[in-house]
Design goal:
Elements (H helix, E strand, L loop, with lengths): L6 H9 L10 H22 L1 H6 L22 H6 L14 E5 L9 E5 L1 H15 L8 E5 L8 H10 L4 E4 L6 H10 L4 E4 L1 H9 L1 H6 L6 E4 L6 H11 L2 E6 L9 E3 L6 E3 L4 E6 L13 E7 L10 E7 L1 E2 L11 E2 L4 E2 L4 E2 L5 E2 L1 H8 L5 E11 L2 E10 L5 H12 L3 H4 L5 E3 L3 E3 L14 E2 L1 H4 L1
Parallel strand pairs: 3-4, 3-5, 5-6, 6-7, 18-22, 19-20, 19-21
Antiparallel strand pairs: 1-2, 7-8, 8-9, 9-14, 10-11, 11-12, 12-15, 13-14, 16-17, 18-19
Length: 446
């Protein structure tokens, strides 16, 4: 029998502080969200110079129903880059943690996100209840995320696990799969948390294939888009239960996590309100339709965000979750808007199309891909990182065959040149610190 997501009872307790609500309902959640949105708008207008200016012409209480939120303007990534201190609602001395985010897809100033102790406590609480879906006392978790600084994401996760008497090892990003596998064995790890491609490469390495099957029972993939093929291979080849987490620093790292059914993220609905919009028109879309994820924070003290456009494309799933919760489910992220490149042919292209083809090939641990210009054509270069002793000739031939079945490539072949695929027996291991993108060098040549 599948247990209901523990996030439901957690959210019930947050909404019903006096314990007077016997069970959670959608109407109770939405009433709470409306109240918190109105409080957030009032607070941000009085404390944040940015929102005081942005919302100046919208009346004293513009959101009397949830549908009214759509009348307010969006906050966008460039606002956080160009005016970070204008968002602050507290003195800088009250900031417990400041995170600087450099984009892997664009240049220019970095985003800066500020958190107070209260903001971090909300994240700690979410990590605690979210991770209780996967682990219990006696489990041992390896965290393949940064955790050397106080209140970093790895540090918060480790502290959250201690609340459940679950021990953890903060390992950081994988640099050498062999050394990481050695650490797994040394610490008797049963669950791993990290970036999808980093964890995939760890399992696909020689020592990973030799030692991790049957030893690691749960995996949580986080920080980036989760290729379906990676989840499928980890579950089928290594007998792991693979869970997905969706979050970003702007959300306070934590956003939502799958339950035991593993078919959509249950979101922290008492902390974040989510809209799905048409990225072209800005109109709110009905549940079930795919669009851009927009967030409004509901209890942020240091740096609240109102209608922040994330650039992530997803949708709300419309069928009730088999776990029985009343919480909504956000589908896995389809892609990030800023990861889309347009080929000379006019076809849109995203790295996720390559992920599903290349990670299905035996021996492939990671890859990197670049787009350049050759005359009047696009030139695509792909380098595969292979497990030691793999048959590189066979894998390169299979990779080219699979790539040519991608509709966007097939229809662009008159204006697209694909370099012979290279294979190397060394670790690329795409940085877990940034989202993976197709490197577009054409911009430098324009």
């Amino acid at each position: 029998m599948i247990s209901k997501t523990p996030l439901e009872d957690w959210i019930l307790n947050k909404i019903s502080s006096n314990g007077g609500m016997p069970h959670l309902t959608r109407s109770a959640i939405e009433a709470f969200q409306l109240e918190k949105i109105r409080e957030t708008i009032s607070y941000a207008r009085s404390k944040s110079p940015f929102y005081k200016n942005l919302l100046a012409g919208f009346g004293s209480d513009p959101v009397i129903a949830l549908k009214n939120l759509s009348m307010l303007p969006f906050t966008v990534s460039d606002d956080l880059k160009n005016h970070p201190l204008q968002f602050l609602c507290v003195s800088q001395s009250a900031v417990e943690r400041c995170v600087t985010l450099h984009s892997s897809a664009t240049t220019g100033p970095a985003k800066r996100i500020f958190f107070t102790k209260e903001d971090l406590d909300h994240t700690l609480d979410f990590f605690h209840h979210g991770m209780s879906t996967l682990v219990k006392a006696g489990d041992r978790v390896m965290i393949l995320l940064p955790g050397d600084r106080p209140n970093s994401v790895g540090d918060l996760l480790s502290r959250a696990l201690l609340r459940m008497n679950v021990e953890s090892v903060i390992h950081g990003f994988v640099i050498s799969p062999d050394k990481t596998v050695d650490a797994v064995l040394k610490h008797n790890i049963t669950c791993i948390v990290g970036a999808p491609v980093q964890i995939f490469a760890l399992f696909q390495s020689g020592n990973g294939r030799k030692h991790l099957k049957g030893r690691i029972t749960k995996v949580l993939l986080t920080t980036d888009y989760v290729p379906k093929i990676i989840s499928r291979v980890l579950e089928s080849d290594f007998n792991c239960e693979v869970y997905s987490h969706y979050g970003m620093t702007e959300m306070g790292w934590g956003g939502g996590v799958e339950c035991g059914v593993r078919c959509g993220h249950h979101m922290r609905e008492a902390d974040i309100f989510i809209e799905i919009i048409d990225p072209k028109t800005g109109q709110v879309l009905p549940d079930g339709e795919a669009g851009e994820v927009v967030i409004t924070t509901l209890n942020r003290v240091g740096m609240p965000l109102i209608r922040y456009r994330t650039g992530d494309i997803s949708r709300f799933l419309t069928k009730p979750c088999p776990c029985g919760t009343v919480l909504k489910r956000l589908d896995k992220i389809f892609f990030r808007m800023n990861s889309t490149v347009y080929l000379v042919s006019g076809e849109p292209f995203i790295i996720q199309l390559l992920d599903e083809k290349l990670f299905a090939l035996p021996g492939v641990m990671d890859y990197k891909t670049e787009l350049a210009t050759r005359g009047d054509k696009d030139c695509l270069t792909i380098t595969l990182s292979l497990r030691v002793n793999s048959n590189s000739n066979e894998i390169c031939a299979a990779a080219m065959e699979k790539i040519m079945t991608i509709p966007q490539i097939e229809s662009s072949k008159k204006r697209l040149f694909i370099e012979p695929i290279r294979c190397i027996e060394e670790i690329i291991l795409s940085s877990g610190a940034q989202k993976r993108v197709l490197l577009d060098n054409r911009k430098e040549q324009l």
